[in-house]
Design goal:
20 strands, CbiD-like, single chain, five-stranded mixed β-sheet
Length: about 375
């Protein structure tokens, strides 16, 4: 499709979701079943209002059912489902539109997701898109009966291994997703939605204490140095503030945030999205904390010239400032996080360096850590 967004000074082509593929394939199959005429291109209106004209592939027409597919195009997004064929198999039934998933479409095994346990992992918006597209065909063809629709993805089982589905309790394949019908490259909304889904799953399982790490550094440190079971935690990427907001929604009582100094030190300045494109301030925070600890102008200049947080930590260690600086920074981090959390929830933090290990903890962090180890 020829629709573009601009991000980080780049022109990026949008794509369309597996939900759009499933709806388009279902619509084309329904037309071919009722008219017995081949359809090579189908028009589909997405929830975002954009019109897609999608090529229909792998067409197989019989008297009682039709199978066909639409190939997923993720545009310039790094999407593991890019290029896969999403099939719809459509047949007659007595009444209604009955939608289910076949091979390569996951099944829900845990409560708290978009669909109930046992259902195919075809989310609400794609289901609605499929139903509306097929009802439109019913009206055009003056058909008053029903149809059964099976969505299947031959490559779905192997692709699902590279997704969050196994952690979310979705087994046997990929999910059919999409809220707008359009894939926007480098979408932060998709990342936040994944965090939300995983947290919702934990909340439905009765979790009141939540282990959170921004990324792989935090997960590796938590596993290798703190002895934590990472299946009990979630990755929040750079979305510290959004993660706290979601935890409040799900009535989480305590969060233990474990992360590298390069990300978490930014929170001391009130930066709740730690991606460098939003703000940095690592050296500024470390420099101001060093001033509070009595550092002279020479040390401050050296800190501000550092490229990595580990370099700055080395300077602080050489000048016997590390303990007082980390104490000041952890206090600021605690205040900012718990201001975001409001009443009824507490956020504790363990901040580390790959070189120097644990650098700082908030007051009750180690006590909460024991809960996760148990």
């Amino acid at each position: 499709m020829e629709n573009y967004v601009y991000k980080e000074n780049r022109k990026l082509r949008c794509g369309y979701t597996t939900g759009s593929c499933a709806a388009a394939a279902s619509k084309a199959a329904a037309i071919m079943l009722l008219t017995k005429r081949r359809v090579d291109v189908i028009s589909l209106k997405t929830p975002k209002g954009l019109i897609l004209n999608l090529k229909i592939e792998e067409i197989n027409i019989s008297e009682t059912e039709v199978c066909c597919a639409v190939r997923k195009d993720a545009g310039d997004d790094a999407d593991c489902t890019d290029g896969v064929l999403v099939f719809a198999k459509v047949g007659y039934c007595d009444s209604g539109i009955n939608i289910d998933g076949g091979f390569g479409v996951g099944r829900i095994t845990k409560p708290g997701l978009d669909q109930p346990v046992g259902a195919a992992a075809i989310n609400s918006v794609p289901r609605r898109m499929i139903e509306e597209a097929v009802l439109d065909v019913f009206e055009t063809c003056s058909y008053s009966g029903g149809m059964s629709i099976e969505i299947y993805v031959p490559m779905g089982v192997s692709i699902a291994e590279n997704t969050f589905n196994p952690r979310l309790g979705i087994e046997g394949g990929i999910s059919i997703l999409g809220t707008s019908g359009i894939v926007e490259p480098m979408s932060e909304q998709a990342l936040v939605a994944t965090i939300y889904a995983e947290m919702k799953l934990r909340a439905f399982g009765g979790t009141k204490n939540l282990l959170v790490t921004p990324g792989n550094y935090g997960r590796d440190f938590a596993r290798d140095y703190l002895g934590l079971d990472l299946d009990s935690g979630i990755k929040c990427s750079n979305f510290i503030g959004e993660t706290i907001d979601m935890a409040y929604e799900f009535q989480i009582e305590r969060i233990l945030l474990i992360g590298h100094i390069g990300k978490l030190v930014k929170i001391a300045a009130g930066i709740m999205n730690t991606h460098s494109k939003w703000a940095d301030a690592r050296m500024e925070v470390l420099c101001s904390a060093a001033v509070m600890a009595g550092a002279d102008i020479y040390i401050c200049r050296k800190i501000l010239q550092c490229v990595t947080a580990d370099e700055a930590v080395e300077i602080l260690k050489r000048n016997d400032l590390i303990e007082s600086v980390m104490s000041y920074i952890m206090q600021k981090i605690y205040v900012n996080l718990n201001r975001r959390a409001y009443e009824g929830m507490t956020v504790e933090v363990i901040m580390f360096s790959n070189i120097y290990g644990v650098l700082g903890t908030t007051n009750s962090a180690m006590e909460l850590l024991k809960e996760f180890i148990r």
